[in-house]
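Following up on my earlier message about zinc ion. Here are the inputs again, as you asked, copied directly from the submission form:
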Amino acid sequence: MKKPILSLLILVFLVINLNAQRKCAVGDASDEKLKRRHEILNTKLQDYYQKYDKQNIFVDNLIRIPVVVHIIHNNTSGKIGGEGNNNISDEQVFSQIRVLNEDYRKKISTPGFNNSPVGTDMNIEFYLADKDPDGNPTLGINRIYSSKSSFDVFDENTLLSSLSYWDSNRYLNIWVTTLKDDFLGYAEFPVGEFDGLELEEVDEAIDGVMIDHRAFGSKTGTSTNGVYTHGRTLTHEIGHWLGLIHTWGDEYCGDDFCNDTPPTESGNLSIKCTPKYSNCRGTRTLNMIENYMDYTADSCMNIFTNDQKSRVRAILEVSKRRKRLITNSEFNLPQTEKLIVKVLENPSSTDYLQFQILLNAFANFNYEIFDASGKQIIQASFEDSPSRLIQIPKIDLGKGIYNLRVKSGEEIVYNRLISQ
Ligand SMILES: [Zn+2]
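Thanks, got it. Here's what our run produced:
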């Protein structure tokens, strides 16, 4: 049946309005501060590439990122889940974590898979934190009531953090609430550290992602209607948190500093995934509307590229706060009030002598192992380290009784190690 053109136009107009347009506050090009931060970050990365051999630095290890989800809701009854309730269900949170892992691992048989030669498995996984900042078991979900019905992404991030926050050196904080002005989400960028450059590190307390509950999770709870309900807003925002820039570089035919994402005139707001083209630098090219760092509808997205991965890996090496978070996650040991050394199973029944070094903050420390005659056999130093596990192969020591000396700042702890 032939439809009147007028009603078709009205329908399209309504659909667009009902779904709103993807609005990621990071792309607000009028914000000079953000733009400057992009420039600083890229200058530093270029230095980094020159300083080190790229091949040797980027080990493709699996990175696991602990996430804490703060649900800031205005539901006085405290009821969890249900239609329109911004005190969203645990299931909605779980659906979001699942999507992150599908997208960042390019999982086969999921919407996060692609066949593109430049499409990559980022080799990054996300999990709800299993220990709170005091080391107690947790689900990684905090529910906080606030009488405020919505929050402004630019002016009220500190307020949001004051309601609930875990150390951003150890957790990726995600604040899920109702955002003002149709924004879907906002993320803070990482920074690197190089000599000779001054950097404005963002306040620890707001380092994370803010996201509207209606764009959080996949087809679950309050995230069911519209084109931004497949969980890709958070995939996109965490891309920023890891240092990625929009594919059009936040300006007309701008640069995202990745060579395998084609030049793009501007963000694509397509909700039907139809091909889009750009005419940048005198050449007509197909836009990569499927890139997570574009503005297309969730269902169009399924790709991070090899260069985006290289960029993220470089940033994770140089960004102090991100590196701390990843290292801490690797060991997942508690902070203590003072330096404590715990020798595990002494003598050990395995091929290793193992001891935990528990610190009260990220700190420098060294350990030395001496034989019975007082001769130093092994020593190692660590900088800006969280509490960590040390494993010494018995074969490196031989049988005997050894003295272990651990020093961090002014604190020194001695222990005896038995190697049998
Ligand atoms: Zn964005």
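One observation from looking it over: The domain at 340-419 is CATH 2.60.40.10 (Immunoglobulin-like). Hope that helps, and feel free to reply on this thread.
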